[in-house]
Please model this.
Amino acid sequence: MKKWLVLSCLLPVLFSGCATRETDSDELSQPGHVRTPSAIVEDFGGSDPIEPFNRVMFEVNDALMHYLVRPFSWVYGSILPKEVIQRVQMASDNLAFPGRLVSCLLQAKFTGSGIVLTRFVANSTVGIAGLFDPADAWFGMPPRNENMGQAFASWGIGPGFVLLLPLSTSINFRDQVGLLFDSVLDLKIIIPYAGTVAGVNRAVNLYDDYVIITETAADPYDYLKMGFVAARYAQVNELAKNPLVPPSAQPLPGPWIPEDSTGNRIQKISGYYCPQGGEIDTVKFILFGMRKNDVSWWVKSSLWNTDFVSAACSRSVRMKEGAPKLHYQLWKAENPESPLVVLLPGVGSYYKAPHLRALAELFRDGGCSALVLSSTFNKAFIETMDFRYPGYTPDDAACLRDVLKKVMEDVRENTGLKPSRTILVGSSMGGLHALFIADMEKKNPSLGFSRYVALNPPVDLQYALSRFDNFTDISKKWTREECSRQVGDIIMKYVDILSRKHPPLSARENGSHNHVLPFSKDQASFMAGLAFRLTLRELLLSARRCQGDRSGIKTEFNWWNRSDLYRELDTFSGMKYVEECILPQQKKKDPSATLEKMNRESGLRAIGETLRNNPAVRVIHNIDDPLLSEADRCFLSDTLGSKIIWFDCGGHLGCLFVEEYQKTILAEAGVLEEPAKESFVPGIPCGDIPCRSECPRAKCLPDTPPSGCPMK
Model:
């Protein structure tokens, strides 16, 4: 009765204060403006006028997760296998059917209401009180994710403002009110302790993912808010039923390829990879994951979990007295004398990033020990030593080299490993750092690496940054509503892709459509640009927190209210970061520093002699990497000769899930006895970078896509 009284008081507030706002009433709603993360989040989930209160509520929830759910999850998850926990969750969801039924009726989804009712009857009887789902398995009626918040949204009620409450799964005022209705309509309300059991069970299921997110983000509240409001927007607007269909890919002239006289090795995978262009292929990076993940019978917090991540040894070193420790993870090979592979990630990556762990698993399965570190652009790295803006490669590599000395010392003295040799492997920016460390080690050996392998390293940093800025500027062509629709579509498709397992792609799957992504070129480009902006945002947030006014950021850092600060941070593009953060920092050390000089010293051309003459250097690159200019490809080809392997497609790191690419990584690292098969190809179709006459080695290739490719 009390809940109904509360609901009757809240309904007038909901209808009067949460109406959908005018989206095109101001200048910023029109095309011509870059859509920043702050603006997108506000469009999705409303403003955050009570941010201090919400942050307090987040801290309450965070404390509950760490100090209540964590120990309970360890015990609960070690008693009940994961399958049992999931069955309990299914039975709990089955009892919540009245809320879904009423929601469908209020939205005039009569077919949906029939499905909800039929599912309840079938699963409650044949499915043994909802422990099983025969309605989906036998009758083809999958679950419908409906609730009262969606019903309110269908009536034109906007999200209102951001509102977070303890133990609540909703993120705005409208959905908090809807959650109250859902709880009243849930059959668990009449079963003693059923709601408590269901809540605990849900928390245990979510705990492992929650820990990764809160550890990775510089501001977990803001990170989770962005994720929740974006996912909720896609759900409420039912974007899964009406996805934006990307335009059909049109064959373009193939990209430049090196001449045979350079000695470069070229491996052709386009016949079964089905390239979609450099930008979209770059997003295929997310298809690379651990093979032995979520295969254990037990949740990850369980004592008995056997997934690959549970085999890691978490260690740390202290780089500066009084500063936080720098953490890393190590997977030991069975033989302590097996080679040790050290992995350096790309811009902003945390040492627990899924792709890093997947690379570690690749080398661990190859018989090596594997060690992973955070990026120099990640707050976990920055805050452990004297603060400086990363981005000037010689300094970044020198810092990494100091870290590696301490880490290798810790490995030798405290882990029992005695590796016969050590190998440094870096991807993207990590690859650039690995090659600079190779240059430093050639002049002053101290680390003892026997091989340096770089995957898709950028050549010219300012060119790469300008490309990211161009990707973000794509949003200028969209109105506010169009941007929301595009980003919502991206989120919906992205989450769907992540929810599925993707085994490595092999040449046996000729013409497979399983790895073709449903994004347009603009969507893929904007995803890359937005991801980079978010990395800059976290980096600058750490700068403001560590440096205060010395950071050059005007808005004050406030622990409980950061909306204004984020609006300022979102104005930083890649080049603005270089001009206003890195350049002033370098001028203090070198008054003659200029953008041109810094770029010259930070790119691979600065260490051309080492690349040309050091036999321990290896590079694996994709010809259509959108972060390379034609001049960059010419430089790599002429300088590295047989020490570089070119793949004929894949964008930027978009080949990691390809079996042949993985074997090539192992071979170039010296792990495989037999090197990956080399194939010299006269032409590479289905590329995404047109030839231009100013490239001294430009060759126009056939513009016919490979047989079996869905873009044909």
About this structure: The beta strands are 265-267, 313-317, 326-331, 340-344, 369-372, 422-427, 449-455, 617-622, 644-647.
